[in-house]
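In the design runs reported in the main text, the only information available to the sequence generator was the tokenized backbone. The following block is the verbatim input for one such run; it is reproduced so that readers can re-run the procedure and compare outputs position by position.
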């Protein structure tokens, strides 16, 4: 589990590293946009005042609906909603502007042509959750103006409370308003007496419970009526079905299935017996004449069964008629009960409506009575007071810093968005990339192991011939050592010594890898024969040979033998068979006995034979060579070889039954090299090679990590 997690982490790091410039660009763009928004958005300041404003009936106009007025007095939420609506009116905001300091007035006029609209837009009013506190909030781009508007609004609110209080007290103190109390009290008493008389006329006090009980009875009876109607419909259906079927031999079973109960079972048995006798009769008629005794006996039995069937069906119909008569009588009786209960329910519901009307009238009269009595009492109690109990408990002050925008929060959100977009784009582009990038995919496709990882080095643009890596302390040379070790392991295991080097398409570095494999093996003291089988585009003839000749052409013409065409190179233990001429009939040459003789000679006289081939998907030459060699290495160029090419090569190798020795991943960028070295030279060796090899000390060389940094003066590898 830990290993799988580490693989996922490495994959994630590699994807980000591959697209690091896109990742960094997205982060910079998003953060730049965030900074632009944060530092160009107009800052807003906020100031608040808090006012204690308990519910008071004197603040509610007496001329409004008395019931609503009294309910507002009792409901704290309704009181504050009324106060909030009052503070946010145009009339209230108009009264604020003249009381502001001159500096704030000038600022408001510079921001808006309508001062009332500006004040109204900047002012917010709400009810604090705890206590009878009204909160007045002002939000503007100017800290001083914000505090001035909030303080002026709170002062104006106190003055408005005093004005409304005095106006209401003057109204309720008049004789006309106070005379409303006895009138309402008289109406209230009359309504209560009417309710009492109505309840006495009903004969019971809890009419709602009676209504519910009667409704339940009606529902139950309605259900019974529905069941009886359904039962009658079913009986009619069975009767009509039986009546529509004539008692012929093919219809007896249908009649039996249409009938329910014991009658159905009896008819089914009789119909089954009759069918068996009919079958017996058909058999007997083939053996005897019609008047033969066996036939007569069977016909007599069939006749007896027919009589019994007719009798059973008739008895069933008679019983069914009797049952339907009983159901009809029950249905009529229950329907009458249901209708009576329905009428009773309607009567009770009408009485409930009348009672609710009386209750509503009494409620309204009680509200009016309590309102006028409470307001009159308040007026009397406060006759010597000029103001109600309303006070400011917190004055507004100029804010030291704006509350919007929150720059820290904006940058935090911007960073999260930038990372999300950057990672998403990297993985999106990774999914659309059709080239091979990861060793796991190659291993899965070919069912083989990656035996070498060759790093990508700088290339002189005009230099086209492959060269040998000779700098022993370079990353590339260390990679060749590891590849050489893999090949030695494979040769010790299989005793193979003739290998072809394949690739799917040109420019994957196949020729360079073949040349360097030969050179690396020669350093172990092995004699290596390097054969250039790419006869349509030969290149190896110009490598390490002082005087290139066309020995292959001479061999094909019979002028020299195999030994005479082998050319020594300037590298110890490396020998070459190559041609500098173009062969258009290369498939015929490579499949000829003469070329096979070259391979056999190399197998017998050299420690290792390396054969460079043309691309597999372009020409047939590579497959021909791979068939006559012991095993093959596939060269795959990282971030270049298309995934479709790899799958095509895999199918091609399977069709030709090629023995695959391993995969060499070529031109791996230095930033990605550590991933491959880690994956294949620590984890892979511990997991796989320990099953097959027990060479002491070999793993220490294989698992060594590349820690030296590539020098710019290192010889380049040319990709051919």
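Verbatim output:
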């Amino acid at each position: 589990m830990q290993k799988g997690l580490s693989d996922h982490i490495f994959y994630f790091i590699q994807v980000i590293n591959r697209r690091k410039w896109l990742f960094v660009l997205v982060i910079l763009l998003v953060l730049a946009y965030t900074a632009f928004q944060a530092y160009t958005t107009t800052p807003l300041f906020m100031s608040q005042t808090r006012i204690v404003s308990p519910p008071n009936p004197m603040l509610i106009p007496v001329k409004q609906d008395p019931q609503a007025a009294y309910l507002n007095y009792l409901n704290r939420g309704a009181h504050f909603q009324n106060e909030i609506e009052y503070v946010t009116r145009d009339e209230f905001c108009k009264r604020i502007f003249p009381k502001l300091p001159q500096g704030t007035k000038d600022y408001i006029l510079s921001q808006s042509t309508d001062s009332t609209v500006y004040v109204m837009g900047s002012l917010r009013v709400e009810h604090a959750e705890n206590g009878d506190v009204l909160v007045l909030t002002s939000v503007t781009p100017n800290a001083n103006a914000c505090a001035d508007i909030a303080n002026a609004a709170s002062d104006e609110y106190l003055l408005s409370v005093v004005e409304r209080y005095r106006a209401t007290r003057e109204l309720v103190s008049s004789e006309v308003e106070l005379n409303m109390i006895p009138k309402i009290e008289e109406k209230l008493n009359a309504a209560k007496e009417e309710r009492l008389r109505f309840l006495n006329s009903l004969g019971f006090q809890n009419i709602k419970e009676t209504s519910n009980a009667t409704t339940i009875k009606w529902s139950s009876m309605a259900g019974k009526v529905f069941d009886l109607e359904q039962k009658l419909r079913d009986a009619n259906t069975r009767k009509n079905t039986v009546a529509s079927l004539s008692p012929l031999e093919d219809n007896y079973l249908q009649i039996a299935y249409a009938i329910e109960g014991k009658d159905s079972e009896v008819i089914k048995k009789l119909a089954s017996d009759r069918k068996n006798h009919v079958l017996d009769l058909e058999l007997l008629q083939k053996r005897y004449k019609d008047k033969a005794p066996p036939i007569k006996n069977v016909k007599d039995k069939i006749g007896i069964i027919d009589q019994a069937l007719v009798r059973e069906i008739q008895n069933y119909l008679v019983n069914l008629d009797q049952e339907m008569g009983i159901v009809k009588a029950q249905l009529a009786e229950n329907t009458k009960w249901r209708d009576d209960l329905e009428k009773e329910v309607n009567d009770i519901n009408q009485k409930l409506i009348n009672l609710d009307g009386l209750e509503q009238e009494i409620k309204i009269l009680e509200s009016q009575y309590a309102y006028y009595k409470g307001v009159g009492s308040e007026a009397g109690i406060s006759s010597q007071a000029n103001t109600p109990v309303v006070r400011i408990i917190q004055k507004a002050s100029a804010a030291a810093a704006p509350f919007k925008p929150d720059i820290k929060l904006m940058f935090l959100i911007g960073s999260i968005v930038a990372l999300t977009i950057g990672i998403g784009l990297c993985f999106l582009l990774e999914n659309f990339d059709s080239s091979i990038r990861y060793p796991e995919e190659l291993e899965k496709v070919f069912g083989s192991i990656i035996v070498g990882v060759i790093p990508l080095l700088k290339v002189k643009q005009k230099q086209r011939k492959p060269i040998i890596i000779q700098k022993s302390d370079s990353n590339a040379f260390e990679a060749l050592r590891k590849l050489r070790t893999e090949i030695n392991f494979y040769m010790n295991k299989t005793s193979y010594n003739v290998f072809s080097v394949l690739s799917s398409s040109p420019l994957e570095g196949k020729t360079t890898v073949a040349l360097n494999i030969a050179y690396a093996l020669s350093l172990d003291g092995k004699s290596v024969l390097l054969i250039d089988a790419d006869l349509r585009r030969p290149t190896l003839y110009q490598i390490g040979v002082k005087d290139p000749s066309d020995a292959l052409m001479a061999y094909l013409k019979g002028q020299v033998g195999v030994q005479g065409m082998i050319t020594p190179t300037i590298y110890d233990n490396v020998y070459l068979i190559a041609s500098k001429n173009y062969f258009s009939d290369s498939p015929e040459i490579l499949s000829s006995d003469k070329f096979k003789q070259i391979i056999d000679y190399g197998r017998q006289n050299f420690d290792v034979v390396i054969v460079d081939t043309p691309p597999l998907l372009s020409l047939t030459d590579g497959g021909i060579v791979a068939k006559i060699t012991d095993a093959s290495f596939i060269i795959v160029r990282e971030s270049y070889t298309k995934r479709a090419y790899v799958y095509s090569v895999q199918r091609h190798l399977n069709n030709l039954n090629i023995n695959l020795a391993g995969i060499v991943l070529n031109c791996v960028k230095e930033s990605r090299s550590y991933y491959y070295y880690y994956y294949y030279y620590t984890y892979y060796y511990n997991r796989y090679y320990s099953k097959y090899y027990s060479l002491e000390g070999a793993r220490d060389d294989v698992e060594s990590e590349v820690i030296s940094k590539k020098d710019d003066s290192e010889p380049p590898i040319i990709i051919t």
